[in-house]
Specification:
Blueprint: H1 11-24, E1 30-34, E2 57-61, H2 82-85, H3 93-99, H4 104-108, E3 112-113, H5 132-144, H6 149-171, H7 177-183, H8 206-223, H9 226-242, H10 246-257, E4 308-309, E5 311-312, E6 318-319, H11 345-352, H12 357-375, E7 383-384, H13 387-393, H14 396-404, H15 409-423, H16 426-434, H17 453-463, H18 473-479, H19 482-488, H20 490-496, H21 499-510, H22 514-530, H23 532-540, H24 544-552, H25 574-585, H26 588-596, H27 600-608, H28 619-637, H29 644-648, H30 650-666, H31 672-694, H32 696-705, H33 708-730, H34 738-742, H35 794-807, H36 817-828, H37 838-858, H38 863-866, H39 869-879, H40 888-899, H41 912-923, H42 933-942, H43 944-954, H44 959-970, H45 997-1006, H46 1020-1037, H47 1047-1054, H48 1056-1060, H49 1068-1081, H50 1084-1087, H51 1102-1116, H52 1121-1128, H53 1137-1146, H54 1171-1174, H55 1181-1192, H56 1202-1216, H57 1225-1231, H58 1237-1242, E8 1244-1247, E9 1255-1257, H59 1263-1273
Antiparallel strand pairs: 1-2, 3-4, 3-7, 5-6, 8-9
């Protein structure tokens, strides 16, 4: 018998098997058929002409069924993508394919209007399996229905030639469809197939197979009665009429079944357009080609429950599918739904690649309008899905980039406008300009996307690789293609396509219209906001900045004759100055390049020397140019640069200040451009003052340029003007100044409705937010309540607090009711951090910090403020984990001043910890949870300076960030490196669990916990003690400070004490503090919130941590009660059975010392009800088996571990006498050999904490249990007590 080859066979074995097969003469399992190559002409495979040529082989296998087997669920496979491969018979394959279709047409068609029709009747046609005749009719119709007009005409001509006149005369004219179907029910059947084409059949004998199917259909019709035939006809017509292809199927039926002679003749009177003889190519009448000239049917409601595809007009507005618009608007076209007005996104994409220039421009402008309205949130309630996300997924970015390379200026301009609509948010830019003059408003976060899950997974995979095999960030970026880069970061994807060089070419060579210039400058500004690397690319682009400086920031220009001017070339533009300001914000080196290499210093002098009305520009444009020049100068002064220009323009600045003060006294509120110019001027003076404080040589130069007395007088006058203008420019419009300056109680209104921290809904991303294109989500920020609205008092309050903090004056308003109410709301708030909310949260964090700092200075002298010291301390504790990157100095200052200050912990000296103990005894009578906490709290209060030093030492790695943040905050301009803040990716400056930092740091340094206390790093024991003291103090008096840390995270962090060293938990101070913290974590009001099934932050699951604790317990615990109670906590019934399986299965040796006999059933330090371990009954059979095994083998004894002994008895007893089969009692009773265990197991009644055994027992078995035991053992019950 021949055998199949095996993997172990050698080449010689294979040759022997082949020889044996040839000698045996067995038939081949597969046949090789030579097919002639059609490309080389027909002929047999063995023809002489093609005998020497290489021909393809076709392998056919015998006994292979003709029909495909039905796709049924495959056997279970260990594959993560199994569900994506297996398809069941009842699943719609077309629907599954459409769901995963990523083609542009499929993606764009998913934007639909969320307006459902209200038809009273909806028919869902269900296609059933009927006879083969009906199936083949439908399949033939569908296979032929998609032919074009010309293909059907050619097929009809061929059919006419093949039939000939004789055959046509014999048959006569073909009857209509109704007649054909009616004749099918009669006795006379057609001689040949008229509905079957055989196109769906393969193989050389397709015609024979078609004839066989036709004969089968004829035989089936002969066996059917007239009534059955009419019933099948009715079903077939119902499918054709009620199906989803009602209209198209009828048209395809007429086009594919009927011959051309059967078509009704079309006369010129029936045509919508009367042809004339002089018209070209109208000699032959083609009615199908003239159908488009008929009048369109009116819009109607769709008889479906599905949402309709969204359509837009040329202004980007959404068109209702039921709206009847006139055709002269140009919104009707020859698409799939010609009766509906407007263009879908898919049609706009196709139109943008048209050969007609006007169509390309029109589609791009329409897309730009759609993007603008989508950013404004106008489609949020009308459309399902995000328009911007859908467009980017469909490839809009590369479509616009290709259109920008068009040679036609109109298309190029439309593409530039669309790119601006995609990248730039006018609301975001307006908000950033509005907040520029706020304290700290010069700094801004980079608009970088957050890391995605794919990037995090790649980083996790590389962590296991050695350093030499890891790829750098630059290498990873180079390996990605443009599509992947653009999918994660839109701006970075555009930069990879050479966008900057193209923009330079357009600005330099094409010299487009003013709107296109403004669009391109706005795009460059948005790219510069992306990151410092992107700003450097803009600066390094050849000739780009030279074109901007020479064309849009000239040193001399003439007044334009027309307004607005037809060209902005040769005129200063505010957009160009804003681009320079954003570039200067990216770093001090970039700012130095602008000032020295590009001639920005000379432009500043040229633009600021004359008054705005003397700049030969339109008044509004002149004010904007002047304001942007002041802002650019302020950014340069924040680095200590361009300060010598201050000496040159000192007289100009002084006249500007005096003119503004006169305008404020004589006239009403300033206009918006005037206010922006004044605020920019004050921001400049603030930064120049900071630089002057750091540069003594600059101050000396000022004294030399003028007399000492004159300089002092000028400084005083400027100081008064600055203070007054600073407050006036920060006030909302129409707000009086005099009452505020005289009434201190009205200086701090603090409306909580404007707060971003207290906003419960959060300032999250909008409906059109795209992760790869982050923004501020500031749409409508001027209208609704918020921190940045023009009527918000926060800019004034922050400026006032800065002033008070600078002069260290005492302000009585810190204890007013609005302030206290606002601070209390902030303590209870939980703000959401995102790219959109970080901008406003940073400013409000600054205000909260200033209030706390002022309270710290005032509290020792003002009893009214000292009365609320506890509230200010809560605000400081809540503010620490909120502070964002770039605010490390604020966190460091709070840690040094307020957080560990005794003055802000009044509980430590207002009655002392003893008063707390008495209050707890009265409140929790019979459950003194905090009786031993008092001495620990007193010791912790004494050690507050040491606690502060401990935490500052563990935060020493943040020293560079703290120093950089301090330089920027204090205005030490020579040391400020950049006004671009760090990325938001890592989160806030301090983690939410920063109080646990010493424990986590020690665990990471020591590793597996094999070291002893003497072997730990120096000061480790003291650091752990200080950390536990601070945690105890917070848990008792500042519970809200740790609300961001979940209870399971607290338990996981405290568990690091057991895993850091082998005997650290045995140290007396550490053990006392851990006992106190364990009691606080297991209080009844907190125990329900302890969910161990949720993975703690930084861990895959709590079960992994519990397994490590079990290993450490078996190795080094020596039966320590604290460690044992720590492990008993996760063994409650409500938690996963996996941890109990680990104890009773893998670590059964831990049961010998999990608790000592001297303790009661539940240790008083744990204070857990016994019912949390025994109720409800255990349902895990493997765990019940382990319970029984540990009891039978003696691994679990009552003398050593009474709690788990009682728990095992309770669950096994409930299982034995449950509603299950009685036979489960017999093996238990037969295998028990431990003395007294069978009595405890059968007579167990229930757990009881006060009992000597820890549970109640029956004196004798109840009757129902006795009967059940008799049935199980098969013996009469002689006694209900004792051992059975």
């Amino acid at each position: 018998m021949l055998q199949r080859p095996k993997p172990s066979d050698s080449e010689a074995d294979l040759l022997k098997e082949q020889e044996r097969f040839l000698v045996s003469g067995a038939p081949l399992a597969a046949k090789v058929i030579r097919r002639p190559d059609k490309r080389r002409g027909g002929g047999d495979g063995g023809g002489g002409g093609g005998g020497g040529e290489c021909q393809r082989d076709i392998v056919t296998i015998e006994d292979l069924p003709d029909d495909m087997p039905s796709l049924t669920p495959a056997p279970s496979k260990k594959s993560c993508s199994k569900e994506n491969r297996v398809r069941f018979e009842d699943q719609d394959t077309e629907e599954v394919l459409d769901k995963h279709d990523t083609h542009i047409s499929a993606v764009l068609s998913r934007i639909v209007v969320s307006i459902y029709c209200t038809a009273s009747l909806v028919v869902h046609a269900r296609v059933k399996k009927i006879h083969k005749l009906n199936s083949l009719v439908i399949s033939s119709i569908l296979s032929c229905g998609r032919r074009s007009i010309f293909a059907r005409q050619i097929a009809a001509e061929k059919l006419k030639e093949a039939s000939g006149p004789s055959g046509r005369a014999a048959r006569g004219p073909s009857p209509p469809v109704e007649t054909t179907l009616r004749e099918a029910s009669g006795p006379r059947l057609p001689s040949g197939p008229r509905l079957l084409s055989g196109e769906g059949l393969g193989g050389p004998d397709r015609s024979a197979e078609t004839l066989r199917i036709h004969q089968e259909n004829q035989a089936m019709l002969q066996t059917m009665s007239r009534g059955e035939i009419l019933e099948e006809q009715r079903k077939l017509l119902a499918q054709l009429v009620l199906g989803p292809l009602m209209v198209s199927l009828g048209a395809m039926l007429r086009a594919s079944i009927l011959t051309p002679e059967a078509l009704p003749p079309s006369s010129e009177e029936d045509l919508p357009l009367k042809p004339e003889k002089q018209w070209v190519h109208m000699g032959k009448l083609e009615p199908d080609k003239l159908e488009w000239t008929r009048d369109l049917p009116g819009p109607r409601r769709k008889g479906t429950q599905k949402a309709m595809q969204a359509r837009f007009d040329f202004a980007g507005s959404l068109i209702s599918p039921h709206e009847d618009l006139p055709t002269h608007l140009g919104l009707h076209h020859h698409g799939e739904e010609p009766e509906l007005a407007g263009y879908s996104l898919q049609e706009l994409f196709l139109l943008s690649r048209s050969q007609v220039i006007q169509q390309r421009s029109l589609s791009l402008n329409t897309l730009a309008s759609i993007l603008t309205k989508a950013r404004a949130g106008q489609f949020a309630s009308a459309l399902s899905g995000s328009v911007m996300t859908t467009l980017l997924d469909a490839g809009l970015l590369f479509l616009l980039r290709f259109a920008l390379d068009d040679n036609v200026e109109g298309v190029m301009a439309a593409a530039a406008h669309a790119i601006r609509a995609l990248l730039v948010s006018d609301q975001d830019e307006a908000f950033l300009d509005h907040s520029f003059s706020w304290p700290g408003g010069l700094a801004s976060f980079p608009l970088l996307p957050c890391s995605t899950e794919e990037q995090e997974e790649e980083e996790e995979e590389e962590q296991g690789l050695p350093e030499n095999m890891r790829l750098s960030a630059k290498e990873k970026e180079e390996r990605r293609n443009d599509h992947d880069v653009a999918r994660h970061d839109v701006v970075k994807g555009l930069l990879r396509t050479g966008l900057l060089s193209r923009l330079r070419y357009i600005l330099e060579v094409v010299r487009p219209s003013p709107r296109v210039v403004q669009d391109l400058l706005a795009v460059l500004t948005r790219i510069s906001r992306h990151s410092s690397h992107a700003a450097t690319q803009v600066l390094d682009c050849p000739r780009l900045m030279d074109v901007v400086m020479s064309e849009f920031l000239p040193t001399s220009w003439s007044a334009p004759s027309l307004h607005p001017p037809p060209s902005v070339y040769g005129l200063p533009l505010a957009g160009a100055l804003k681009l320079l300001r954003v570039l200067a914000t990216s770093g001090r080196h970039a700012c130095a390049r602008l000032l020295s290499s590009l001639g920005v210093r000379e432009r500043l002098s040229r633009l600021l020397s004359p008054e705005p009305g003397e700049l030969l520009l339109e008044s509004g444009q002149a004010l904007r140019v002047s304001a942007e020049a002041f802002r650019l100068w302020a950014v340069a002064a924040s680095y200590g640069q361009a300060c010598d220009t201050y000496i040159e323009l000192y007289s100009v600045l002084l006249r500007a200040l005096q003119a503004v003060t006169r305008d404020l006294d004589s006239s009403g509120p300033l206009l918006a451009p005037q206010r922006q110019r004044v605020q920019a001027l004050l921001a400049l003076l603030t930064q120049v003052t900071h630089s002057a404080g750091c540069h003594q040589e600059l101050h000396a130069a000022m004294l030399r340029s003028a007399g000492r007395g004159d300089a002092a007088e000028r400084r005083g006058g400027v100081g008064v003007c600055v203070v007054r203008l600073y407050l006036r420019s920060s006030l909302p419009p129409h707000c009086p100044v005099r009452p505020l300056l005289h009434d201190s109680s009205s200086l701090l209104p603090f409306p909580r409705s404007c707060s971003a921290v207290c906003d419960l809904q959060g300032h999250g991303p909008g409906p059109e937010a795209v992760p790869s294109l982050p923004g501020l989500a500031s749409a409508g920020w001027k209208d609704g309540p918020g921190l940045a609205v023009p009527s918000s008092p926060f800019p004034l309050l922050t400026a006032l607090c800065v002033l008070l903090d600078s002069i260290t004056g005492i302000h009585k308003g810190l204890s007013s009711k609005p302030v206290i109410g606002y601070l209390g709301s902030c303590c209870r708030a939980t703000p959401n951090l995102s790219n959109a909310s970080a901008w406003v949260l940073r400013h409000e964090h600054h205000l909260l910090y200033l209030l706390v700092r002022l309270a710290h200075r005032v509290a020792p002298k003002d009893p009214a403020v000292a009365r609320h010291a506890s509230l200010y301390h809560q605000v400081a504790m809540a503010l620490l984990p909120w502070l964002l990157p770039g605010s490390e100095h604020l966190a460091h200052d709070l840690l040094c001043s307020v957080v560990f200050s005794k003055d802000f912990l009044p509980e430590s000296h207002s009655g002392g910890p003893e008063a707390l103990e008495l209050a707890e005894l009265k409140l929790h009578a019979g459950a003194p949870h905090l009786q031993a906490v008092g001495p620990l709290l007193r010791e912790a209060c004494v050690q507050l300076p040491s606690l502060r030093g401990c935490y500052l030492g563990h935060l020493a790695h943040l020293e560079p960030s703290v120093l950089g943040s301090k330089d920027a905050y204090l205005g030490r301009t020579p040391w400020v490196r950049s006004r671009l803040l760090p990325e938001l990716g890592p989160g806030p400056a301090l983690p939410a669990d920063w109080p646990y930092l010493p424990l986590v740091t020690l665990y990471e340094r020591t590793g597996g916990g094999e070291l002893q206390v003497e072997e730990l790093p120096r000061g480790a024991l003291q650091a752990v003690t200080h950390c536990l003291q601070w945690l105890l103090l917070l848990e008792v008096w500042r519970e809200g400070a740790l609300k961001a840390v979940t209870p399971v995270a607290k338990l996981a962090r405290l568990s690091c004490v057991f895993l850091s060293a082998s005997d650290l938990f045995l140290e007396r101070p550490v053990q006392r503090l851990l006992w106190a913290l364990l009691r606080l974590l297991t209080r009844p009001d907190r125990l329900d919130s302890l969910d161990l099934d949720v993975a703690p932050p930084g861990l895959a699951s709590f079960q992994d941590l519990f397994s490590a604790l079990l290993v450490q317990y078996e190795a080094v615990s020596f039966g320590d009660p604290l460690f044992g109670c720590w492990l008993l906590l996760p063994l409650q019934r409500r938690y996963s059975a996996a941890m109990k399986l680990a104890v009773f299965g893998e670590h059964v040796g831990a049961l010998r010392s999990l608790a000592c006999s001297g303790l009661p059933l539940v240790p008083p330090q744990l204070s857990l009800p016994l019912e949390r371990y025994t109720s409800p009954p255990e349902a895990s059979l493997p765990l019940l088996q382990l319970y029984f095994r540990s009891l039978v083998t003696g691994g679990l004894l009552q003398a050593r571990c009474p709690l788990l002994y009682t728990v095992a008895l309770a669950h096994l007893n409930a299982f034995l006498f449950s509603e299950g089969p009685a036979q489960q009692v017999s093996p238990v009773a037969q295998r028990v050999r431990v003395k007294g265990l069978i009595d405890h197991l059968l007579l167990f009644r229930g757990p009881q904490q006060d009992s000597a055994l820890g549970f109640h027992t029956y004196q004798q078995l109840p009757p129902d249990r006795a009967q059940r035991l008799e049935r199980a053992l098969g013996t009469p019950d002689s006694s209900h007590g004792g051992t059975h």
